[in-house]
Amino acid sequence: MSKPAITLWSDAHFFSPYVLSAWVALQEKGLSFHIKTIDLDSGEHLQPTWQGYGSDTPCAVITN
Questions:
Q1: Would the keyword Transferase turn up in this protein's UniProt record (predicted)?
Q2: Which residues pair with 7 in a beta bridge?
Q3: pLDDT higher for 64 or 38?
Q4: pTM score of the predicted model
Q5: Domains (ranges, CATH) in the chain?
Q6: Is the separation of the CB atoms in 22 and 14 below 8 Å?
Q7: What share of the chain is helix, strand, coil (3-state, %, to 5)?
């Protein structure tokens, strides 16, 4: 059985401490993943050509 691909999203400057924490955890566990960035400063996330994460993109949901 193949494992789903893991994509780690970050802003273009890798500013988020949450991304850093996720990156460290993935490295420590030895999981393969790839990083995608989006330039928030230039408004890339506001452009109509940006597809977003998409409803078919698996993501972690944290609930209390």
A1: yes
A2: 34
A3: 38
A4: 0.64
A5: 1-64 (3.40.30.10)
A6: no
A7: 25, 15, 60
Q: By the 8 A CB rule, do 41 and 10 touch?
A: no
For 28-40, b where at least 16 C-beta lie within 10 A, e where not — what string?
eeeeeeeeeebee
- Report pLDDT digits (tens) over 3-57: 668 888 888 888 888 999 999 999 999 999 989 888 888 888 888 877 776 656 5
Helical H runs in 1-64?
A: 17-29
C-alpha–C-alpha distance, residues 9 and 36, integer Å: 5
CA distance 28 to 45: 30
